[in-house]
Amino acid sequence: MVGTLWPGEFDERTAYRVQSEPYMQDNDQQLLDLASVIDVPGAFSAAERRRAEQLTADKRILVALRAFDAGFTQVLAAGPQLLRRWENADPTDSKQYCGKAVITAALDARRVGVNTPVSAALLAAAAPAYLSSAQRATAPEDWFERAISYSTTLMHGATACLTPVAGGMGQVAGWVTADYLYQCALQMRRTAPIPDQAWQALLDHHDPRESRFLGESAVRWNRPEKAIKFYEKAATAGDGWAACELADLLDADDRAGEAITVLQMFVEGQPGPKVTLSPTRQSVRSELVSKLAGLLIGEDRIDDMRRLADAHGKSAATWFVDMLLDHGMTAELRQRADAGDWEASRWLTTSLQAHGRVDELEERADAGESLAQVRLAELLARQGQLDRLRRRADAGDRASQHHLAFLLAKKGRVGELRRRAKAGNQSAANRLVELLSTHARTDEALAWLRPNLVDWHAAKEVIEVLVQDQRTTDALAALRLYADSGEMWAAVRLNELLVDLCRVDELRLRAKAGDWDANKRLLDLLVAQNREDELRQRADDGDAKAADRLVDLLIDQDRVEVAITVLQTQADAGVWEAAYRLVDLLVELDRVDEAIAWLQPRADSGAWEAAHERDRQTRLKFFVTQDPGVRSSFCTTAHKRLADLLAEHGRIDELRRRADSGDTVAAYVLVDLLAETGQADELSQMADAGNLEAADKLSELLLTRGQVDEAIAVLRSLIENGSPFATSRLINVLADHRRLDELEQEVNAGTSGAAERWMELRGFVPRRRRPDPRDRVYETGGYRETP
Questions:
Q1: Who contacts 582 (Cβ-Cβ below 8 Å, separation ≥6)?
Q2: Distance separating alpha carbons of residues 242 and 396, to the nearest angstrom
Q3: Distance CA 159, CA 183 (A)
Q4: What is the distance between the alpha carbons of residues 233 and 135, in angstroms, rounded to a whole number?
Q5: SS3 readout for 535-557
Q6: Per residue in 379-432, pLDDT tens?
Q7: Which tens digits make up the pLDDT trace of 290-326?
Q8: What's the CA gap between 737 and 739, in Å, rounded?
Q9: Is 172 helix (H, G, I), strand (E, B) or coil?
Q10: Cβ-based neighbour number of residue 84 at 10 Å
């Protein structure tokens, strides 16, 4: 016989007692003295929890697993009692029906996002909304105290519908709902509307820390007027994100002036009532500034926009420049450019360049304006004004040095380029080398090649000329110079040239030094030369890529069995690239049974977890070395490869057996296969057994067959089981099939996106959204020519 007993009751019946005292449970103690006691932990281990989660067809287990306010066994024992106490309250007993109203108010508060203990004030204000007129009229004066007594009564000594939370010694700060009851309420009241009075109670008595989150909930429940109030409270407390959302709602309600005032309180600190601002992160401030700019531009409030641009630099100034251009106010743009406004300066210098105003550009460039220096150098080069470019280049103007070098090269001025290159001018050195190379003066160009003077583009041009002229010794020397300085292009080209010249020894040295490209090319060369012994030696030394290339060589020689032996050796050593190539090779040879037999013990042993870790390390190595040869070919686990193999070859019974034995990967693959082959009945059976993936695929399959009602039923079951993706799909299905009543139920459930789709189908004008000024800047480039 097996029985269970709470620890407290066991201790009470087995505790030491004075023998002379009467003891009403003496028989219990004698019986328990004969028992073999097995202590059951109060919480599941991780493995036990995983196994329990697979039994989701039993909704009681699912709900108990989601409860955290009491142990799993306590919830299973007391949960049904909690549910009965809430649902079956006597409608004629004021203590019971008022208690039920208080419990429902607390559950709905949690439904809409209240995560802190609900206060007595909130419950007292909200509970009457859940009572009939007659019940409110006949309720006693102490109805709330009686209701709290009813809702906090412990069931089976384990838990109550509401549990008090201390606000101090002997003080109650509020109450929290039982997790089990809340999980049930999420299903039973999911589409029940929240009464207006309950929303008002939430607005009047919520924890200020939750204002923004309740505002978001009010939007989802299609209560924009309440959302505005919640956001106002959050914004007044200094929440910048709430201010952004509030501004959107006000603007959508044609209250742009109020939206501007709210944003100005954060961005400028004025006008409007004084608020205590919390520290505002840069991302929040950027959003506030852009929203305010969009409103000011849309309302054509140029004075406010000027103040915003003056206070917030580059971003706001860019939009203000656009605004001034729209109004043709070029004089003010010049004034702002003269005052150091970078965006105005960008517009002005570009405009001056377009109109060829060299003197004015030079005046601004001489004053140290960097944009003017760049635009002036471009203009002088375009006009071919060598003397003015020389003068500015000699004065240290880098933009002029750059454009002068191009102009000198175009005119073939080798002597002047050489003189400037000797002085350390990199632009002149680059153009000089290119010019000499073009005119077949390769030796002279070669003498200038130095990584800190001549860039890769010019150096590469000279080196390619050397290769074409078969001056490989000079080309190799130049490439080594640049490769040793860290230039990747030079290392790759050097390795390529070493292969062409069959310089195997140097290639080995570079590979040994960690050059991944050299190693790859060395292996290619060894394969091309049939150097099996060296490839085998490198593979035995732990070079997985060498083993892979050895297999390539063996397959090319039709020595497949030897290749399989190499792969097996590598796989047994833990090289998962070899393991999966072995499987692929066996499948390619139509030896599927052998591949499956090899995979099964690896999948069952748990070695696939090591593959995941190895995959992570290899990907890390890839990002560190930038080695395109390093690929995560083994990112698929043994479970997944085996399941895919069974599915590809139609071995559905074996796949089904693995899924039934607890292989979750096989279960996923089986679900996909059933969906692809249209086997709705088996998908339905799996869904009924609690397989959420099967239910998800079943809903898709039913929709493709036009079985909308059945698909909606499946989606609703998914939602009840907590699927995060089913809600959005359900909204789309209901909207696409114009199921307005059901869509309205989802609005009542607070389902994200339901309110927007419901209003759209009812013909309401969608919320007006201002164009984001950041998009406008992207399109215009932030400047235009003078009108």
A1: 564, 567, 568, 571, 595, 598
A2: 51
A3: 15
A4: 34
A5: HHHHHHCCCHHHHHHHHHHHHHC
A6: 999 998 999 999 999 999 999 999 999 999 999 999 999 999 899 889 999 899
A7: 899 989 988 999 999 998 888 876 668 888 888 888 8
A8: 6
A9: strand
A10: 11
